[in-house]
Design a protein that fits this description.
The chain is mostly helical. It is built from three helices and two strands. A two-stranded antiparallel sheet has the order 1-2. The chain is globular.
Length: 105
């Protein structure tokens, strides 16, 4: 079963529009070697996820695996979670760009 706050996120199909603190270990995440590397990797990730979504839709299996904060998610919920997570980061990026632009004025 999914945690109640997770059920709300999935009902709304988005993360809450707030700053979410990640673990301190995130500070050690290496930066990509270049913008082109990042774009290439993201394009491959999109293709891989689309392929996985097709296999999930055709699969008769309905198992769930544990998420560290939301308890248990099915394969299709993991795909949806990834999409929601990316959109959350795009909102963060927009806030940062607006902040930086306001500082230039």
């Amino acid at each position: 079963r999914m945690a109640p706050h997770g059920e709300e996120m999935f009902r709304n199909n988005c993360f809450p529009d707030e700053v979410i603190e990640g673990p301190s270990s995130n500070a050690a995440t290496p930066q990509p070697e270049s913008k082109e590397y990042l774009l290439t990797t993201l394009r491959k990730l999109r293709a891989d996820i689309n392929g996985a979504a097709e296999r999930i839709a055709a699969s008769p299996f309905q198992g769930k695996t544990k998420h560290p904060g939301l308890l248990y998610l099915s394969a299709s919920e993991w795909i949806q979670f990834g999409d929601m997570h990316f959109r959350h980061h795009f909102r963060q990026k927009k806030r940062l760009e607006e902040f930086l632009q306001s500082r230039e004025s």
